[in-house]
Amino acid sequence: MSRLILASASPRRKELLASLYADFEACPVGIEERALPAEKPGDYVQRLAYEKATAGVERFAADNGQVWVLGSDTIVVSGEAILEKPQHKADFERMMGRLSGATHQVMTAVCLRNTERVLNACVVTEVNFRPLSQSDITAYWQTGEPADKAGGYGIQGLAARFVRSISGSYTSVVGLPLCETEALLNQAGFRTSM
Ligand SMILES: Cc1cn([C@H]2C[C@H](O)[C@@H](COP(=O)(O)OP(=O)(O)OP(=O)(O)O)O2)c(=O)[nH]c1=O
């Protein structure tokens, strides 16, 4: 039986993966999250997912048995800008200014790998926000919810009220696209029956 490791500190990813396949261990890996000069958002998010999975494989490969590691990364893309987690309040306000009354993309990449095989998926979802007032933005920051989330918001939380429409995968926005992740797990030989 292969062992499955989720290379992540995200409680959302843990919960989403558990809904597909419960028998895994979550183990955060520290990798630097910074885009290279001229790196495209899709390339960047896929590179980070690959680096997280690879760091996990390097850590666990010495163990006995077959180990598969799942790494994932989520970014928000507004025009040319990549929005990650807000560093501070002013950074968050800048992000909300971009998202207000507009459509942005949420990209989540998933990489499932062992020492021999690398399986990838990348999902792009379009999200439209209603216009946000300064008091919406200030009140939302004070809830503490934005701090650990790409683009500074959680669609599964209080920011749901800002979302006018979504086209694509809801679970991908939350941090792990379930449909595509199940397909990768099945390709790797994990049985995800309900
Ligand atoms: C847009 C959006 C993002 N997010 C979260 C998903 C991710 O956890 C986080 C993006 O940061 P990531 O760097 O992708 O993930 P992470 O640092 O939380 O976890 P790890 O790298 O250890 O796997 O933002 C939401 O929870 N809801 C949302 O609506």
TrEMBL record:
The active site is at residue 73. Its EC number is 3.6.1.9. The keyword Hydrolase applies. Pfam families: Maf. It is an enzyme of class 3 (hydrolase). One of its GO terms (biological process) is nucleotide metabolic process. It is found in: Cytoplasm. The keyword Transferase does not apply. Its cofactor is a divalent metal cation. Transmembrane segments: none annotated. GO terms for molecular function: dTTP diphosphatase activity; UTP diphosphatase activity. InterPro entries: ITPase-like_fam (IPR029001), Maf-like (IPR003697). It catalyses: UTP + H2O = UMP + diphosphate + H(+); dTTP + H2O = dTMP + diphosphate + H(+). Keywords: Cytoplasm, Hydrolase, Nucleotide metabolism. The record marks 12, 74, 156 as: Important for substrate specificity. CDD domains: Maf. One of its GO terms (cellular component) is cytoplasm. Belongs to the Maf family. YhdE subfamily. NCBIfam families: maf. Nucleoside triphosphate pyrophosphatase that hydrolyzes dTTP and UTP. May have a dual role in cell division arrest and in preventing the incorporation of modified nucleotides into cellular nucleic acids. This is dTTP/UTP pyrophosphatase.
